[in-house]
Amino acid sequence: MIFPTADAVTNSYCLLFIAVVLCLYQRDDMLQYWHIALLCMMGALLGQVKITCFIIALFVLFLIPKAHGCVKKITLALPALTAFVSMWLWRAKTSQISVAPNRVPLEKTHELEGQLLQSSWKIFPLIGRSLFEPMDFDTEKINGQLVNSRRNLQFFTGTEEIQLPLIVMAPVLIAIMMLLIVHMSYKNINKLQVGLIVLIIVLYYVLSCVAMSITWVGNVDAYASGLQNRYFIPVLPLAALLFPNFIRDENINRRVLAISVAALTAFSYIAIAITYVIQWK
User: Fold this and answer.
1) What is the pLDDT of residues 98-157, one digit of tens each?
2) What phi and psi values does residue 241 have, to the nearest 5 degrees?
3) How far is it, in rounded angstroms, from Cα 176 to Cα 178?
4) 64 pLDDT exceeds 90?
5) Contact 230/3 with Cβ under 8 angstroms?
6) Using an 8 Å Cβ cutoff, are 197 and 238 in contact?
7) In 3D, which of 51, 124, 118, 126 has the Cα closest to residue 83?
8) What is the rounded average pLDDT of the residues 30-51?
9) Does residue 175 contact residue 261 with C-beta atoms inside 8 Å?
10) Smallest Cα–Cα separation from 174: which of 62, 264, 78?
11) Phi, psi for 40 (deg, rounded to 5)
């Protein structure tokens, strides 16, 4: 799910942060202060990987049911605060560096930030267009080829540059869905935790759209061109937690499940190898 891209380390670290929080949630014992200290350290690093990713630090609040006592529940806010401060310090340090100077000058980026602060309502049409506008309407080209569609289909086709057939990619994606449907049915989370997850996903998407608009497009009244589905890999585990509990009994053949997942995954990877070994004309 990571892909060999410039976002590989960013996505990997975000998934690691989420994994640590879920690991602590599944422990039999209650949350300890050294766990919170660990999350603070990880939060500081999370604030450095990508500005939009600091919002994932809010996921530490998922651990509130595991924190015994009001003081410990309050201290759970520290990792999120650490991530925000870390992100803010890094942003202050790099505020005079344009993200894409050949696309949007630094002065224009600051101007667009001011527009959004003064007219926050502009975020809503921006999000609406970015969610529903057909991908092939975007005219951005690289080497004479339209790139928006392949950027947003790369998760289902392998990579952006080499788009693999459905027969190659579908089996491993089916394996992932099988695992999610089975294992998410045994989760035990309350409505407040579900609300927190939804909030993080929505904020992450909004921040991503805003970031692309002010640093890549140069217009907050248009489609957030440049968005790629690999940008949203960090929140896929959170989205998986929203799966309903499909399974109500224990009559699951674990052996068949394991064999099926292994076979589907092996098929996809063997097929990927074949597509790269053969010299296509």
Assistant:
1) 888 888 888 888 888 888 888 888 888 888 888 888 877 887 887 887 888 877 777 777
2) -65, -15
3) 5
4) yes
5) yes
6) yes
7) 51
8) 93
9) yes
10) 264
11) -65, -45
pLDDT in tens, 213-262: 888 888 888 888 888 888 898 999 999 999 888 777 677 888 899 999 99
Place of tokens 């969610």: 131
SS (H, E, C) the chain: CCCCCCCHHHHHHHHHHHHHHHHHHHCCCCCCHHHHHHHHHHHHHHHHHCHHHHHHHHHHHHHHHHCCCHHHHHHCHHHHHHHHHHHHHHHHHCCCCCCCCCCCCHHHHHHHHHHHHHCHHHHHHHHHHHHHCCHHHCCCEECCEECHHHHHHHHHHECCCCECCHHHHHHHHHHHHHHHHHHHHHCCCCHHHHHHHHHHHHHHHHHHHHHHHHHHHCCCCCCCCCCCHHHHHHHHHHHHCCCCCCCCCCCCCHHHHHHHHHHHHHHHHHHHHHHHHCCCC
**Which amino acid makes up residue 24?**
L
Q: Which two tokens stand for residue 73?
A: 């529940």
Between helices 77-93 and 33-49, what is the axis angle to 10°? 30
